[in-house]
Design brief:
The complex is a heterodimer of chains A (325) and B (318).
Chain A (H helix, E strand, L loop, with lengths): L6 H15 L3 E5 L15 H5 L4 E3 L4 H13 L3 E6 L9 H14 L9 E6 L14 H5 L5 E3 L4 H13 L4 E6 L21 E4 L4 E5 L2 H9 L10 E5 L2 E3 L4 H10 L2 E8 L4 H13 L7 E6 L8 H7 L3 H13 L1
Parallel strand pairs in A: 1-2, 1-3, 3-4, 4-6, 5-6, 8-9, 8-11, 11-12
Antiparallel strand pairs in A: 5-10, 7-9
Helix pairs in contact in A: 1-6, 3-4, 7-11
Chain B lengths: L3 H33 L14 H9 L6 E3 L5 H6 L4 H8 L33 H15 L5 E6 L6 H12 L4 E7 L2 E2 L2 E2 L8 H7 L4 E5 L3 H16 L5 E6 L17 H6 L5 H9 L1 H24 L15
Parallel strand pairs in B: 1-2, 2-3, 3-7, 6-7
Antiparallel strand pairs in B: 4-5
Helix pairs in contact in B: 1-2, 1-10, 1-11, 2-8, 4-11, 5-6, 10-11
The chains are: A alpha/beta (325), B alpha/beta (318).
Chain lengths: 325, 318
């Protein structure tokens, strides 16, 4: 049986297929063309589709992202790469004040079919300006969709969906997942908005996304007794988000833990916990908690970073705590 | 290039430009009045004194060319062909407005006419126009994108980055910098530095400075730039020097301006300056027609319904 694609290859395949299918799809960003991307996601695309559609840009993120938004309004479907998610802060205006709002401000007069491809990935000493998880911030802005694929299959399916979406999509990859293959590449495709049960269980429900999905699965290696049988649900996308699968699960297990790599304070977990409590309050037997990174900038030193981010060891302790609370 | 000049000769060209300027003036005077009367909500910025820039620049464009504009964008929209009744309706917050009442003055747009929108963020339209030019290039549809912005915007990063991209990629973009002398409340010479033309040329942009109270001068400079852009020869920069007659926003007490400065404004009134060339009789007739048109537009817009509250969540996503 041939090997299934790695996460990084699935992304490149999705982009190539969409560019082949639709001439209006282009990609642009710093080093995405001749160099094939800083991690190689766009490798081979410029050879195949040419420098007009696979476009290297100056290091001018605000201009480049703004131009992608303008191009989307004028008939293209650009995939613009923001090399590290932290760099979103140097080009927030075209994302937040332009892309997110233009359809609404024009009363539906324009479509803004742009994909902001970016990646994060704490835990490898990238330092405070190359490691943040900002998906919660982006999800806060009405008008933006936010996709966070946790495995190769969703990297492919969600990127295809993002390109075909007529609304702006923030597509958040995790670079630590790039070399990994799906455990079940041949599973049925799911649209954005629908979570996926990664592991069935009865004791509590864990809600997570991105790299924390596999980190939570790995945490089970450390749990014996209480907390060893969680149901693990991958949200896949923060916007849109249909939580009915999650609330059904929590209604059955009675307890819930939301795990994310983003900083916990004012983080996306608070929103999800609040929604779960709204939907499942009368079925709860225990806590609905969140577990994210400590409220510090991401530190450089490995010992400090391991303390700051959720890890399989610390998630294991939280599983037991929630199961026994 | 299709324009009033080739269609009807020089006299016809001035008549058309004057007619557009008269319509903008009549529109903006009613905006000021209805802001005072409370029919217009929030913030509103009028372009009285700058009508020749809008009229001249848009006369040099084709119908499907694309523009981005600023918080002071009513004139650009009218000159690009937007319907004044639907513009007033937008400013009055009505359902029949160009944006269904969701945009207002600072976000007014008519994408069907290539008007990608006014913008509440100074400079933000510049990269958007570069991207619209990129789309025109990739699609090969022959369109040109034009960014209107003020001289205050040249200090912001969006100008530097947008221009850098347009030059690097030789995009079909025309940058029209309306120099009205003030960045909000502050005189634009407060910051020193090189002139607008020197700045533009430093990026490798062909640059031309014209009297922004002369619609024919603006039209010919922009027509030349647009023709270059359409021919694949890349972007150009046009500075149009004009005077902002009103405050930064309606209600601005303008304590930063002297009596002498107020008194001197008329010397740069594009409608007065073009009046003799056109002939007083025809000029007055065009002014009267514009007044009537805008009175009718206001009346119809004031009669229009407000949006249904239940539509508040429509069009957040496509």
């Amino acid at each position: 049986m041939p090997e299934t694609p790695r996460y990084i290859e699935a992304l490149g395949q999705a982009m190539a297929d969409e560019m082949e299918r639709d001439d209006s799809v282009i990609t642009l960003g710093v080093d995405v063309g001749a160099a094939g991307g800083v991690y190689g996601v766009t490798k081979g695309l410029q050879e195949r589709f040419g420098p007009e559609r696979v476009r290297d840009t100056p290091i001018a993120e605000a201009g480049v992202v703004g131009a992608a938004v303008g191009a989307a309004m004028a008939g293209l479907r650009p995939i613009v790469e923001i090399m590290y998610m932290d760099f979103a802060s140097v080009c927030l205006d075209p994302i937040v004040n332009q892309a997110a709002k233009l359809r609404y401000m024009t009363g539906g007069g324009v479509k803004v079919p742009v994909v902001f491809r970016t990646q994060t990935g704490g835990g490898r000493s990238g330092g405070a300006q190359h490691s943040q998880s900002l998906e919660g911030m982006l999800a806060h802005f009405p008008g933006l969709r936010v996709f966070c694929p946790a495995d190769a299959r969703d990297a492919h399916d969600l990127l295809v969906a993002a390109v075909r979406d007529d609304s702006p999509v923030c597509f958040v990859e995790n670079r630590r997942l790039y070399p990994r293959r799906s455990e079940d590449w041949d599973r049925d495709s799911l649209p954005p908005g629908l979570p996926r049960v990664v592991r069935q269980g009865d004791e509590l429900t864990v809600v997570t996304w991105g790299r924390m999905v596999s980190e939570t699965t790995r945490a089970l290696e450390h749990v014996e007794g209480p907390g060893a049988d969680p149901e693990i649900i991958d949200l896949r996308t923060l916007v849109p988000l249909d939580l009915s699968l999650v609330s059904d699960s929590v209604s059955r297990t009675g307890r819930c833990l939301v795990v994310h790599e983003a900083v916990e304070s004012y983080g996306p977990g608070a929103e999800i916990v609040a929604r779960i409590i709204d939907q499942a309050l009368y079925y709860l037997d225990g806590p609905v908690e969140r577990f994210g990174a400590l409220p510090t900038p991401v530190p450089y030193s490995p010992t400090l970073e391991a303390e700051m981010l959720p890890t399989h060891e610390s998630i294991a302790r939280r599983l037991t705590a929630v199961a026994t609370a | 290039m299709a324009s009033a000049a080739t269609a009807t000769g020089p006299a016809g060209e001035l008549r058309d430009l004057y007619g557009t300027m008269a319509r903008i003036r009549a529109f903006e005077e009613r905006v000021a009045k209805h802001f005072r009367d409370g029919d217009i909500h929030g913030f509103v910025h009028v372009s009285i004194g700058q009508e020749a820039v809008a009229a001249g620049a848009c006369a040099a464009l084709q119908r499907d060319d694309l523009i981005t504009t600023t918080h002071r964008g009513h004139g650009h929209c009218i000159a690009k062909g937007a319907d004044p009744e639907r513009m007033f309706a937008e400013l009055f917050g009505r359902a029949t407005g160009l944006c269904g009442g969701k945009g207002g003055s600072m976000h007014i747009a008519d994408p069907a006419l290539g008007i990608l929108g006014a913008n509440g963020i100074v400079g933000a339209g510049i990269p958007l126009a570069a991207g619209a030019g990129l789309a025109a290039r990739v699609r090969g549809d022959g369109r040109v994108a034009l960014a209107f912005f003020g001289e205050g915007a040249v200090h912001c990063g969006a100008f530097h980055e947008g221009v850098t991209l347009a030059v690097a990629w030789s995009l079909p973009v025309v940058f029209v910098c309306e120099n009205n002398g003030y960045a909000e409340f502050t005189r634009s010479d407060a910051w020193g530095g090189p002139t607008l033309i020197a700045r533009a040329e430093s990026y490798g942009l062909p640059a031309n400075s014209v009297a922004g109270d002369d619609p024919i001068a603006v039209r010919s400079a922009v027509a030349e730039a647009a023709a270059r852009a359409r021919a694949g020869e890349g972007p150009c920069f046009v500075e149009a020097r004009a005077v902002r007659f009103a405050g930064h926003y309606e209600g601005d007490p303008q304590q930063y301006r002297s009596e002498e400065e107020f008194a001197a404004r008329e010397q740069h009134d594009p409608l007065l300056l073009s009046r003799d060339g056109l002939g007083a009789e025809l000029a007055d007739e065009l002014r009267r027609a514009a007044e009537e048109e805008m009175d009718d537009a206001v009346a119809a817009a004031l009669d229009a319904p407000y949006p249904e509250p239940a539509t508040v969540r429509d069009d957040v996503y496509a």
